[in-house]
TrEMBL record:
It holds the Pfam family POP1_N. The lineage of its organism: Eukaryota, Metazoa, Ecdysozoa, Arthropoda, Hexapoda. It comes from the Eukaryota. Its main location: cytoplasm. This is RING-type E3 ubiquitin transferase. It catalyses: S-ubiquitinyl-[E2 ubiquitin-conjugating enzyme]-L-cysteine + [acceptor protein]-L-lysine = [E2 ubiquitin-conjugating enzyme]-L-cysteine + N(6)-ubiquitinyl-[acceptor protein]-L-lysine. Residues 21-41 have a biased composition (Basic and acidic residues).
Length: 748
């Protein structure tokens, strides 16, 4: 805290001057002849052990009350106390200091030179006021420094005590920390005598009757430790070591003793005997009011304090207890004599700041309790009638919103009724809605139309909404495709493909359907493929439609230089003369393949036909705009015997990768049981009207049930095709997200 410059005649002296004087004194001692001591061989050697030779690495001066840490380093006890309160580590090696070190320090016995005063000078000792009465004596070096500054006529000077910078004000006889000048203590200069010893707060506090009964019961049973709740803190009382300490801070301990009732003590549970006398007067003049129960309960607390031949447990307060520990007990006093208050507390309240307010020396217990009873009744009424803020606390903190105070729709439905009833009781109503902001006014009124408008240039996949929230999207090949995750979590994709299952959407691949005579289709496709690249459209492995194939597609009769790209194909498993083959090509070169097929087969585009695309009742047209397959969206080409249909953006295709992909498919795909269905639709008519198709479907279901027990896709033939009619997975999805695992015997 910055201070103004001192007036003329004032002199501030810092610790550096003290260090300078100490160095000059050491140099003066070095100039004197060293004392002689006997060596090993009887020769005299100069002595190196001098009083005050050990230097403190914290204050950079000779140690006063030197204390050795377990690590071996030596510091002043007060310097060590300041370091312990700040970080509890050695200032040299940074090793931790034991928590109970200040209670049992390892003090070194180094003799200090006695400074006898001159014949004309008197010796004085310096003391500072304790927090709760009494005086603490400064250590020897600080006392000498204060005496020197006082004799030199200094009004104020700064010094370091326990690692903090203090200001000593001789004019006002106080000391205070520079960072907290309002907490000042008085200082005292006194001649040394038998009565000049510093006072200490000694004595014993008696436990309250309830805690005393618990301790006595545990002591009679032979228990070693007892837990007590004292002043809202859990304390542990060690009956073997006869000490107590807070469970959360075992470093601060107090001694306890077991003695007969009637032993002199400072009070009961932090209450002075004057309060007990006031309680006796109160019991005689107790008013007849509903608050009598409170007075009676207070009287019962102190009942039986003066029992005969019983044992009581006392809490010791001695000079070894730190001043911070004294605060916890002595602040519990309810009443004091005026003389005792002035002598222990010193200046009242804001007296040091020039104010007129002061803390009253005593309280009237009757009035004090009546005021507290009124407050307790008010709190009870508030608890019985919770407000709307209390109702919002009934659900987790992360779900609370600030808008709940004025918008009831932000509150969950299960407690919305309680909130509305509380608002009615408080006669508060929601005010008129504010004018919506410009962004809200410009929002699309019909979101489906807005989505369809945004897909005119770049088509969205059906999984676009899911990917748009989690991936960076790119515009490629006429599609809006996910490029990379927003959280840069490539590791998650690798982990899914290596340990679980990774799903990829390949619906952007363009599908081309060729329908016509089998030999005509094969002859035309031979111009664009070659047996040297592997299986082609006429391979026996794929011709029956049980497996899909992949081959390289070339320009007509230009193998091997006219390569276009790889295509996937699948034949329809039909025994009829007219066959169907589906070809999937990448959108980057799908248009080029379509152009070559039109040229090879001599196809011509068919004219649009008038079709009725009126949606059924209750179905919005916007929902079907991107889902139905009108003639304009599936261009058709024909030459009389063969027909080609472009099924672009009408089919979905997904790829599952990973060791648990088979388990995921087995959990998601559930075969339709037509015997239990009550709705007649196209699937029921297709499979049930024709006995042959019904038999084929039953065989497919049996085969699928066998496939369910497989634990890996490697147990199936590569590129195999399994046709199956399933339920919509959205109706059979579990309510809680689970992880699919292999489990035999689970019906799909």
């Amino acid at each position: 805290m910055a201070e103004s410059l001192p007036p003329s005649g004032h002199r501030y002296n810092t610790r550096r001057n003290t260090r300078k004087r100490s160095l000059e004194a050491d140099d003066a001692q070095k100039d004197q002849p060293a004392e002689k001591t006997a060596g090993k061989d009887g020769e005299e050697e100069p002595s190196t052990s001098k009083p005050g030779e050990i230097d403190c690495a914290i204050c950079l001066q000779s140690c006063v009350h030197p204390a050795r840490l377990p690590c071996g380093h030596i510091f002043c006890f007060l310097c060590l106390k300041g370091v312990f309160r700040s970080c509890a580590k050695c200032a040299m090696c940074r090793r931790p200091i034991p928590r109970n070190y200040l209670e049992t320090p390892d003090l070194l016995e180094i003799p200090t030179p006695a400074t006898a005063p001159s014949g004309d000078e008197e010796e004085f000792h310096w003391f500072y006021e304790g927090r709760h009465g009494g005086w603490w004596q400064y250590e020897e070096r600080m006392s000498r420094e204060l005496e020197d500054e006082h004799k030199s006529g200094t009004d104020k000077f700064e010094t370091v005590i326990c690692g903090h910078l203090y200001t000593i004000d001789f004019a006002n006889h106080v000391q205070f920390r520079n960072d907290c000048p309002f907490h000042a203590r008085r200082i005292l200069r006194q001649r040394p005598s038998l009565n000049s010893k510093c006072k200490t707060l000694t004595g014993w506090w008696e436990y309250d009757p309830r805690a005393n009964d618990d301790l006595e019961t545990a002591y009679q049973k032979g228990e070693s430790k007892v837990e007590l709740l004292i002043a809202n803190h859990v304390y542990l009382v060690d009956l073997h070591g006869m000490m107590q300490y807070r469970k959360t801070d075992p470093g601060r301990r107090r001694a306890v003793k077991r003695d007969r009732v009637g032993t002199a003590c400072k009070g009961v549970a932090g209450i002075r005997p004057t309060v007990l006398q006031a309680m006796g007067d109160l019991s005689q003049n107790r008013p007849e009011s509903p608050e009598n129960e409170v007075f009676r309960s207070i009287e019962e607390i102190f009942r039986g304090i003066t029992l005969s031949d019983d044992f009581q447990i006392y809490n010791h307060v001695d000079s070894d207890v730190s001043e911070e520990e004294e605060d916890d007990d002595l602040e519990k006093h309810l009443i004091m004599d005026e003389d005792e208050l002035v002598s222990s507390r010193g200046p009242q309240f804001d007296e040091l700041l020039g104010g007129e307010e002061s803390v009253p020396p005593s309280i009237v217990v009757n009035d004090f309790l009546e005021a507290r009873i009124t407050e307790i009744e008010a709190l009870s009424r508030v608890i019985e009638n919770p407000n709307q803020f209390a109702s919002r606390k009934e659900f987790p903190r992360h779900l609370r919103r600030r808008a709940m105070s004025h918008n009831v729709k932000r509150i969950p439905k299960r407690i919305r009724g309680l909130h509305e009833s509380l608002r009615e009781k408080s006669n508060t109503r929601e005010g008129p809605n504010k004018v919506p902001r410009r962004k809200w006014r410009r929002r699309p009124r019909e979101l489906l139309k807005e989505y369809n408008r945004r897909q005119r240039k770049f088509i969205w996949l059906e999984t676009h909404i899911w990917h748009a929230k989690r991936f960076h999207m790119v515009e490629k090949w006429g599609y809006k495709l996910p490029y990379r995750p927003c959280d840069k979590n490539y590791r998650a994709c690798y982990r899914a493909s290596a340990e679980h299952c990774l799903l990829q959407d390949f619906s952007y691949l363009n599908c081309i359907e060729l329908r016509g005579d089998f030999h005509c289709i094969i002859e035309g496709l031979k111009c664009h493929t070659s047996d040297r690249t592997g299986n082609t459209f006429d391979s026996r492995l794929v011709i029956d439609g049980r497996r899909s194939g992949r081959t390289m597609f070339y320009h007509g009769n230009r193998f091997p230089r006219g390569a276009i790209g790889e295509v996937d194909f699948l034949w329809n498993s039909s025994t009829e003369k007219e066959r169907v083959v589906w070809i999937w090509a990448h959108p980057a070169y799908a248009a080029e393949i379509i152009y070559d097929l039109v040229t090879t087969f001599g196809l011509a585009k068919e004219e649009d036909m008038e079709t009725d695309i009126t949606p059924p009742e209750g179905v919005e047209m916007e929902k079907l705009e991107k889902r139905n397959v009108p003639f304009c969206r599936t261009p058709k080409y024909s030459n009389g015997g063969l027909r080609m249909t472009i099924l672009k953006d009408t089919l979905n295709r997904f790829r599952l990768t990973g060791p648990l992909s088979q388990a995921v498919i087995a959990k998601v795909l559930q075969a339709v049981d037509f015997k239990k269905r009550s709705v007649d639709d196209w699937s029921t008519k297709f499979h049930c009207d024709d006995p042959a198709r019904k038999l084929v479907y039953s065989n497919q279901v049996k085969f699928w049930r066998k496939v369910r027990s497989f634990t890996s896709p490697a147990q199936l033939p590569p590129n195999c095709v399994m046709p199956l009619t399933i339920y919509d997975p959205r109706f059979t999805a579990p309510k809680i997200r689970t992880k699919a695992v292999h489990s035999e015997g689970n019906e799909l």
